[in-house]
Each structure stands twice: as structure tokens, then as C-alpha cells.
């Protein structure tokens, strides 16, 4: 009989014998002769992985990379094939978020947008199983229903798990299927299903009153957001502070007092409310730190200018009887031409903040063009504002300065990323000093 014979072989490998109540693990899922593919338990699988990664002697960014590269993929296939419910996947996502928050020292209230927005928009690009598995399942059934093979087309409707896929359709697309589910699967292009889910996460993040402030300026900006994937040039402490800065969760009194009534006067200077913008851009206690950040940007521009053959003059006083005195940060001269560049580092509170600041710089120094030409013996000058965001935003107008300096196209992107990292490190340096002052203020007796 079938059950009483020699083992069946495939290329000299025996096919295992199992009873009708048993199961066999094949391609990452448990298969039963009677019930087919058995539901997996991704929560039970992911928790030991998270504990092992947490205990590993790795840097926080390395733990996140290991989770994305090796940890999460181990549970995805089984959860996908066995049609694990959305509620279970939501719990798995919550455990993953909590682990990442612990590794990166982020506040428990950090918005989901930081984790699930794409890196080009300023997020960490973590997988969201609740969304991505549903998208994968709906896409697969779309391709099955639309298959060119005649036999597959006939069998697919009979095998379609309508109740489960109907639920996944709503998760994947955000809307109920119009008409019958089978008709929707037959007429929808699989390539468009779930295409915008990360964009939706980013838009939801931008819509938050506190944590979404100024985030729209980072949309679709691979230069300003490059450090999120590869933190080149940033220490782990700088990277963690930069994430807190990007998500507006730095532990200031304004952040800690959300939903409560408490004194928010700045502990560093005693004036103004202690918020991120005040600490980074206005607090008198950190004026020297802001000047150092500004001077680092000027110094880097000077080095680039000299390497390209420009003569660089720093902070030269230019006097005009009509307009008074001006002290631009840099005047670059070469072959009778001049470039006047004034640097600013601003907090990106709104999408137009950096553009308006650059325009202000141009309007301020453009009227000194003739006195500059007369003083330095130039035939003409061009005036620019070189503006960087305190959270790492690269102003598109800065590329025009590099073009006028004659920087090769092949080096522009790399230098733009370098300026971004320099600006972030300057801001995180201010936050480190602020944290020390805050701790000392708390330790002093009332």
C-alpha cells in the first residue's frame, strides 16, 4: 500500500513520512496533510530575535541594520504564506518599534512616521508588516487572477480566500473594493498597489502639530536625508540626537510639559520658553556654540574656494556713505570677478525658511556691490546667501554658489552631504551642552 512501502526518493533524498495530525516544515512554513499551510506565529518568532539583537555588543545603528537585514525577513515569509491576521502583525510591529526606540534612546511617544517614512523623506525606512504583508498578498492574487495561463485563470477564483483577501485589500489600498473582490483583482495593476503607503506615513507625520513641524521641507531630499541610512561622519551620540532633533522629541521643558501646566522658562538663559527652536537658534547661553557652527561652514567654504584657485577674504568691512557698513562672511576674488557669500544656519521651522533667509542675505549685501568692486578692484561681483538648516537641510540655492566657484559636477553631491553633516554636528554639539546645563540645573537645590 501507499503507507507501507519503501521511502520515496527525490535525487537520493527521502521524502519524510508524517501522519494526518502532524506537520512538516517546508520553505519556512508548517505544512499539514489535512489542513495545508498552518498559521505561523510571527510574534513568538520575533521576540527571541529582538532579545538576541538587544544583547549583542553592537552600536545602536548596527542593531537597527541587523534587524532590517536579517531579523524581520525571517518572519515575513511564514506570516505571508499562512495569512496571519492583521491584529497579530500589528502587535509584531509594536514590539519592533519598542525595541528600536530602546536601542536609539528615543522617547516612547516618538511618532510612527520617523520609523516608517522612507529615508528619502527623512524616516528610517523600517518595514511595517501590517502593511507590507497585506500588499504582498494582494499583489500576488492580482497576478494570479490576471495570469495569461488559461488553467490558472480557471482555478484561481475557486482557490481565492475571499474573506481574508478582502480584509487585506482594505489594508493594502486604504479603501474597500469597488464591486466584487474578484473584479477588483482582475482590473487593478499590481504595480500600483501599496505604492504610496510610505508617503502616507510621511504626510501623517507632517500633519502632527508638534513632531511634524517643518518636516515638509525634507520631502524627497536624498542629500539632506542621506545620513539616516549611512551615518557617515556622525558619532552614535550625534546620530541619536539628530533623530530626536528631526522628530522634535529633544527633552526640553516645552516637550516635557505637553498636556501639562508647568514653567517652561529656559534653564540656560532664564529668558524665553525652553523649546528646540529657542535652544538651537536663540538662546544666549549657546551664542558661542552657534558662532562656532557658523564659522565651521565658512571655513569649509574657504577651503573649497582656495582649492579652486580663488583668493578668499574673511569678514572684510565694507563701508558705503549711503548704506553704512557691511561685513560679509566671505569675499572670493579671481580674474577680476568677485563672489560675496554670507553664511547662515537656521532652524527649518517652515518649508520656505531657508529660501527667505537666503533672499534676505542677497538683498542685504547686493547694494554694497559697487563699494566692494571699488575697494578690491573688481569688474563685477555676485552676491549669495549660503544657508544651511540646523537639522541638516541642504538649501537648493547653495548649489549655485558651488557652480559659480567652478566646482566639478562630480563633487557637488559629496560636498553637499558633507555640509549637511557639518551642520548637524554643530547643532548636536549645542544640544550636548544644553543637556549638561539642564542636568546641573536640576541637581542644584531650590
From TrEMBL:
It comes from the Eukaryota. This is Reverse transcriptase. It comes from Poecilia formosa.
Amino acid at each position: 500500500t501507499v503507507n507501507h512501502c519503501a521511502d520515496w526518493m527525490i535525487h537520493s533524498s527521502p521524502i519524510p513520512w508524517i501522519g494526518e495530525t502532524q506537520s512538516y516544515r517546508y520553505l519556512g512554513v508548517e505544512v499539514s496533510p489535512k489542513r495545508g499551510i498552518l498559521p505561523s506565529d510571527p510574534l513568538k518568532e520575533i521576540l527571541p530575535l529582538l532579545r538576541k539583537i538587544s544583547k549583542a555588543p553592537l552600536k545602536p545603528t548596527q542593531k537597527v541594520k541587523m534587524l532590517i537585514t536579517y531579523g524581520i525577513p525571517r518572519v515575513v515569509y511564514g506570516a505571508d504564506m499562512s495569512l496571519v491576521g492583521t491584529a497579530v502583525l500589528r502587535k509584531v510591529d509594536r514590539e519592533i518599534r519598542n525595541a528600536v526606540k530602546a536601542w536609539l534612546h528615543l522617547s516612547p511617544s516618538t511618532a510612527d512616521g520617523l520609523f516608517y517614512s522612507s529615508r528619502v523623506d527623512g524616516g528610517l525606512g523600517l518595514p511595517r508588516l501590517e502593511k507590507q504583508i497585506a500588499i504582498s498578498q494582494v499583489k500576488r492574487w492580482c497576478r494570479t487572477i490576471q495570469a495569461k495561463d488559461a488553467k490558472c485563470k480557471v482555478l484561481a477564483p475557486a482557490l481565492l480566500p475571499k474573506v481574508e483577501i478582502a480584509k487585506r485589500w482594505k489594508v493594502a489600498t486604504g479603501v474597500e473594493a469597488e464591486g466584487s473582490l474578484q473584479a477588483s483583482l482582475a482590473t487593478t495593476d499590481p504595480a500600483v498597489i501599496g505604492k504610496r503607503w510610505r508617503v502616507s506615513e510621511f504626510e501623517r507625520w507632517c500633519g502632527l502639530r508638534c513632531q511634524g513641524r517643518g518636516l515638509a521641507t525634507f520631502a524627497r531630499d536624498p542629500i539632506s536625508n542621506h545620513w539616516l541610512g549611512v551615518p557617515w561622519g556622525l558619532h552614535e551620540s550625534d546620530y541619536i540626537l539628530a533623530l530626536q532633533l528631526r522628530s522634535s522629541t529633544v527633552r526640553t521643558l516645552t516637550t516635557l510639559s505637553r498636556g501639562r501646566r508647568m514653567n517652561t522658562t529656559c534653564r540656560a538663559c532664564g529668558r524665553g520658553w525652553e523649546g528646540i527652536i529657542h535652544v538651537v537658534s536663540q538662546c544666549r547661553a549657546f551664542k558661542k556654540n552657534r558662532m562656532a557652527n557658523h564659522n565651521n561652514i565658512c571655513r569649509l567654504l574657504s577651503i573649497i574656494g582656495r582649492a579652486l584657485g580663488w583668493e578668499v577674504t574673511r569678514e572684510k568691512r565694507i563701508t558705503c556713505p549711503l548704506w553704512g557698513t557691511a561685513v560679509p562672511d566671505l569675499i572670493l576674488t579671481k580674474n577680476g570677478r568677485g563672489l560675496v557669500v554670507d553664511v547662515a544656519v537656521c532652524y527649518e521651522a517652515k518649508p520656505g525658511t531657508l529660501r527667505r533667509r537666503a533672499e534676505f542675505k542677497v538683498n542685504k549685501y547686493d547694494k554694497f556691490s559697487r563699494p566692494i568692486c571699488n575697494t578690491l578692484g573688481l569688474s563685477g561681483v555676485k552676491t549669495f546667501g549660503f544657508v544651511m538648516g540646523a537639522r541638516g537641510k541642504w538649501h537648493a540655492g547653495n548649489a549655485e554658489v558651488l557652480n559659480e566657484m567652478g566646482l566639478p559636477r562630480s563633487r557637488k553631491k559629496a560636498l553637499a552631504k558633507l555640509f549637511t553633516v557639518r551642520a548637524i554636528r554643530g547643532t548636536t554639539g549645542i544640544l550636548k551642552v544644553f543637556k549638561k546645563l539642564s542636568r546641573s540645573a536640576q541637581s542644584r537645590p531650590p
